[in-house]
């Protein structure tokens, strides 16, 4: 008998982006202050791949990094966006030192809503051009983003 690791559950991720048919595309984690960034990214990539996602997104106060899970496990991110760009776009430019985990979750949620449902005459979301170049915007068009939002109170 061979022991195998259980398949990761889709709801284990703080970010889940699905295509229009409900298929998993992006799994992500939002950690404002990770203890071991490198290890946590590697674990996310492994869990996301096991759960059938195509991409993994890791967001902390340094950056938002998107990884293509079809590439080697140590491949660099296909998108690296400074978190400062998200804060400037959605948080009136407040300093990183003032951002708690729940607030960062809400910023990422707003970012995905603006990617999925662009508002006419509203500034483009950070990273939209690169996501379009990668073909990822068309893959998630008509889909949904589920960001686990913590409570403030």
Describe the structure.
Helix content is 32%, strand content 20%. The chain has one domain (10-147). The chain starts with 14 loop residues before the first strand and ends in a 6-residue tail after the last strand. It has helices at 37-50, 83-90, 101-116, 128-133, 136-140, and strands at residues 15-18, 24-30, 55-59, 63-68, 79-82, 144-147. By secondary structure, it is an alpha+beta fold. A hairpin with a 5-residue loop joins strand 1 (15-18) and strand 2 (24-30). 27% of the residues are buried. A six-stranded mixed sheet has the order 5-4-3-2-1-6, with helices on both faces. Mean pLDDT is 89; it is low at 1-10.
How would you describe this structure in keywords?
alpha+beta, 6-stranded mixed β-sheet
Order of helices and strands: EEHEEEHHHHE
Q: What fraction of residues sit in β-strands? A: 15-25%
Reported for the largest beta sheet, the result is: 6 strands, mixed
Task: List low-confidence stretches.
Answer: 1-10
> What general form does the structure show?
globular
The domain count comes to 1
How many helices? The count is 5
Structural category is: alpha+beta
Quaternary organisation of the protein chains: single chain
Helix fraction? Answer: 25-40%
Cα gyration radius (Å): 15 Å
Mean pLDDT: 89
By DSSP, the count of extended strands is: 6
Q: Terminal Cα separation, in Å?
A: 48 Å
Spatial strand arrangement across the major sheet: 5-4-3-2-1-6
Summarize this, please?
By secondary structure, the protein is of the alpha+beta class. It has helices at 37-50, 83-90, 101-116, 128-133, 136-140, and strands at residues 15-18, 24-30, 55-59, 63-68, 79-82, 144-147. The chain has a 6-stranded mixed sheet, with helices on both faces.
């Amino acid at each position: 008998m061979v022991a195998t690791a259980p398949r990761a559950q889709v709801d284990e991720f703080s970010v889940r982006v699905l295509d229009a048919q409900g298929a998993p595309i992006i799994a992500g984690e939002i950690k404002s202050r990770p203890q071991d960034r490198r290890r946590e990214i590697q674990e996310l990539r492994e869990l996301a791949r096991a759960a059938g996602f195509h991409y993994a997104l890791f967001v902390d106060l340094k950056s938002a990094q998107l990884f293509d899970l079809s590439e080697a496990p140590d491949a660099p991110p296909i998108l690296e966006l400074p978190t400062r760009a998200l804060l400037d776009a959605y948080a009136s430019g407040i300093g990183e030192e003032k951002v708690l985990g729940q607030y960062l979750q809400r910023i990422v949620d707003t970012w995905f809503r603006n990617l999925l449902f662009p508002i006419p005459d509203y500034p483009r979301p950070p990273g939209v051009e690169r996501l379009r170049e990668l073909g990822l915007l068309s893959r998630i068009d008509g889909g949904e983003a589920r960001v686990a939002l913590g409570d403030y109170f």
